[in-house]
Amino acid sequence: MSAIPMERPMLGDDEATALTVLAARVRELAEATVLTGADAAEAAAVADEIAALTARLTAERRGAPPFVTPGERRMDRQIANPVTGPLNPFAPPISLEVTSDGVVRGEFTLGAVYEGPPSYVHGGVSAMVLDQALGMAAAATGTPGMTATLETRYRRPTPLGVPLQVEAKASRVEGRKVHASGTISAPDGRVTVEATGMFIMPQRFVTSEY
Amino acid sequence: MSAIPMERPMLGDDEATALTVLAARVRELAEATVLTGADAAEAAAVADEIAALTARLTAERRGAPPFVTPGERRMDRQIANPVTGPLNPFAPPISLEVTSDGVVRGEFTLGAVYEGPPSYVHGGVSAMVLDQALGMAAAATGTPGMTATLETRYRRPTPLGVPLQVEAKASRVEGRKVHASGTISAPDGRVTVEATGMFIMPQRFVTSEY
């Protein structure tokens, strides 16, 4: 039913490097857009130039975001993931590491495009970051799954423009279900948002492996 | 503690219109970036041109995203909101309407930059959309607040590239607390994600009004 195909082109190293730089420039452009003090004429002139660059990029267009060959973790193939993907201008992107005991950790800073209440991170953006971290913690158990439930509790506002920490860990595995929990913390170490979630490995993942 | 100031510049109509067009072009560029089949040399050349445009936009730079003078709803002033803001290239953006009986509704389509599992919407993106819709439903009661809790339940995958519906409504108000619930539905009418949330009006909003 989805209009985006499942099959993926695989990027070579040179392409992945060049597209990662391109995405970083687009990310900076997006932040410049919400913060610019340019007048209407200058904004319109820049908009026209952007349209010409979009046309250049779409001269050769794929049907779906590409993958890269993953290292140890299968999830790392998704180089255009909206939270962690360096190829996705929409992603901060957040580099999430998994320790040998299955703890997912990352440090990140969110700028003006992620603002909810004035000067603070949008509550939905915090939920998005936690969904990704908890999902990776679930996958680290060897049972990667899709989100079934996610509960986020906001203990205090999360500030923009300062280094934040995200951490997550799986708590138990029951067949195809994995429970995980995690937090976002401010620079003073205080937890701003906490989450618990349950992830389920789709039946087709299971059947395709047996 | 946040590095983004609370005070906001107010946009005039001409500026708001020009910046909305600019943001739409940057949004298209972001999608073109994740889908481009350009080779490494072309990607690098386009990246350089984007850097030059970012420099033009940052020649006059604000400290925080601007607001517009709101109509009936105070939340509408936030023209760079990451879910609904036409000025924010990160936002789809989703136009959310509030009916006279307090129901928040919107139709939207999510493209490749919002992908989680191949061909489906990232679970965290669905949570972000629902947080915004439930928050607006809470605000429609006359008690606007920040998210205190958000519980999302994923009933089936949400497809990319097709028109989705989001709907939300407040269920009860208890002093400064408002409870709300909502859903995202696929084109066949089936609910893909449902959410309940609780929103609390900060004490400082209360004291500033009395």
UniProtKB/TrEMBL annotation, chains A, B:
Q: Gene Ontology cellular component?
A: cytoplasm; membrane
Domain Thioesterase positions = 120-191
**Its catalytic activity?**
tetradecanoyl-CoA + H2O = tetradecanoate + CoA + H(+); decanoyl-CoA + H2O = decanoate + CoA + H(+); hexadecanoyl-CoA + H2O = hexadecanoate + CoA + H(+); (5Z,8Z,11Z,14Z)-eicosatetraenoyl-CoA + H2O = (5Z,8Z,11Z,14Z)-eicosatetraenoate + CoA + H(+)
**Membrane topology type:** Peripheral membrane protein
Q: What is this protein called?
A: Acyl-coenzyme A thioesterase THEM4
- InterPro entries per the UniProt record, alphabetical: HotDog_dom_sf, THEM4/THEM5_acyl-CoA_thioest, Thioestr_dom
* GO biological process, any: fatty acid metabolic process
* One annotated GO molecular function: hydrolase activity
Instruction: Family membership, please give it.
Output: Belongs to the THEM4/THEM5 thioesterase family.
Species for this entry: Actinomadura coerulea
